[in-house]
Specification:
The chain is α+β, with helices and mostly antiparallel strands. It contains 13 helices and twelve strands. The protein has four domains: 1-30, no CATH class; 49-150, Beta-Lactamase; 165-226, Signal transduction histidine kinase, dimerisation/phosphotransfer (DHp) domain (Helix Hairpins); 235-387, Heat Shock Protein 90 (2-Layer Sandwich). Strand 11 and strand 12 form a beta hairpin. The protein binds adenosine-5'-triphosphate (ATP) and magnesium ion.
């Protein structure tokens, strides 16, 4: 077709531009340029209210003036299964605010908007518009069009934001209350007691450090989230990073009586990454293994090649401990902010419950993921999966 068209456009006579243009007009249904301006197009008669309502991607219902259902689409049936064509909508809908809105729209001829909340089968929020549709040349609305805008995702985000602020302020309030208590005691009854002062100062320092760490973690999280769409592009070799993390945590390991063993089972594990963020992520995994799995006396870190779910080669770093492990019901929630299996234990260890959330965000930004396996009683294994850096293309002579 394109070959013919091109040769025709260039040629004269039988295959000339005039003939081509005429054929194109016929195909596209265009009028000749000389014909009078056409009337605004009218939809073909088979485009009924039902077809149009059926084509809308959001729940939509058309009602007649008596409030009977003229047409409804599948999303509308899904949220109001009792609605039937030809039957009054008011009985099936049974939401007083909605019934009111329909009545007001029918009597005033003006669009009404209401927000409704449904508890069953799931919590859902909708903004419903009831729009009277007046036919061309008519005086009254013959039809009421109801459309439902699902506000549930917005409400969920709002709930998460409120939960997050409640959690963060609670985490800050606890050490702050402790600090204020100690300050009061030091100003009052223990003013002259040097031994008590020394003891309190140690506790106060720990509480203040916890608050500083919490704020630090929150800032890191928001910075990583802010850059979530920017994939790091610096080639980074994983083995030296993991060794650096393990060396840095030797003191903690000694304190807990744990031996860290690093095994590098691959020549090169180069990824495109942000070095500081990766260090932070591995630090949290190894620190968790040392803090919560200390009973096992050993932490194994293994670096190796593995396969992605789609069978491509990837870098894997597994951090395994032999402590009490984690019950299966907790596994899916571990990377949520502030989620802790044992809040008292985590707080006692200076934890804020943000570590694994940070790991997850760091890995997401790197196009990687975290998998967790655990059998209670035998320990836990956290594996970081990262895409390998693409091989640098060799230069070719042209
Ligand atoms: N290796 C592990 N063994 C047993 N439980 C673990 C292990 N790693 C994490 N957990 C559990 O998961 C929870 C969440 O870990 P996460 O690293 O997110 O927070 P945290 O260690 O409590 O605080 P932070 O990392 O901010 O210091 C921990 O409180 C702990 O209950
Ligand atoms: Mg942690």
């Amino acid at each position: 077709m394109s070959e013919d068209g091109q040769s025709g456009a260039r040629g004269n006579g039988q295959n000339g531009p005039g003939r081509l243009r005429a054929a194109w007009r016929a195909l596209a249904g265009h009028q000749p340029a000389s014909s009078p301006p056409s009337q605004p197009p009218t939809p073909p008669s088979e485009f009924s209210v039902e077809t149009l309502i059926g084509a809308l991607p959001i729940p939509a219902i058309a009602l007649d003036r008596q409030g009977r259902v003229l047409a409804l689409n599948a999303p509308a049936s899904a949220i109001a299964p009792a609605l039937r064509r030809g039957e009054p909508a008011l009985i099936a809908l049974r939401v007083p605010e909605l019934v009111d809105a329909i009545r007001r729209a029918a009597s005033s001829g003006e669009r009404q908007q209401v927000e409704i909340f449904e508890r069953v089968p799931l919590d859902r929020w909708f903004e419903v518009s009831v729009t009277p549709v007046v036919p061309a040349g008519g005086a009254h609305a013959d039809l009421l069009l109801m459309t439902f805008n699902d506000l549930t995702p917005l409400h969920r985000v709002e709930e998460m934001r409120a939960d997050f602020i409640a959690n963060a302020s609670h985490e800050l309030r606890t050490p702050l209350a402790a600090l204020l208590g100690f300050i009061e005691t030091l100003q009052g009854p223990a003013r002259e007691d040097t031994a008590v002062r020394e003891k309190f100062l140690v506790i106060m320092q720990a509480q203040a450090s916890r608050m500083a760490r919490l704020i630090d973690d929150l800032l890191s999280l928001s910075r990583i989230e802010l850059n979530a769409h920017l994939r790091p592009d610096t080639p980074v070799e994983l083995a030296p990073i993991v060794r650096q993390v393990a060396d840095g945590l030797q003191m903690l390991a000694r304190d807990r009586g744990v031996e860290i063993k690093v095994t590098v089972a691959a020549n090169s594990l180069e990824v495109l990454g942000d070095r500081d963020e990766l260090i932070r992520a591995f630090e949290n995994l190894v620190e968790n293994a040392l803090k919560y799995g200390a009973g096992g006396k050993r932490v194994d870190i293994v670096l190796r090649h593995g396969e992605t779910l789609s069978g491509e080669l990837e870098a894997q770093v597994e951090v395994r401990d032999y402590g009490p492990g984690i019950a299966p019901e907790h596994l899916p929630r571990l990377t949520e902010r502030f989620y802790r299996v044992d809040v008292v234990d985590s707080r006692a260890q200076g934890g804020t419950g943000l570590g694994l959330a940070l790991v997850k965000h760091v890995l997401n930004r790197h196009g990687g993921r975290l998998t967790i396996e655990s059998t209670p009683g035998t320990g836990a294994s956290f594996t970081v999966h990262l895409p390998l850096a693409p091989a640098i293309p060799c230069k070719r002579e042209i």
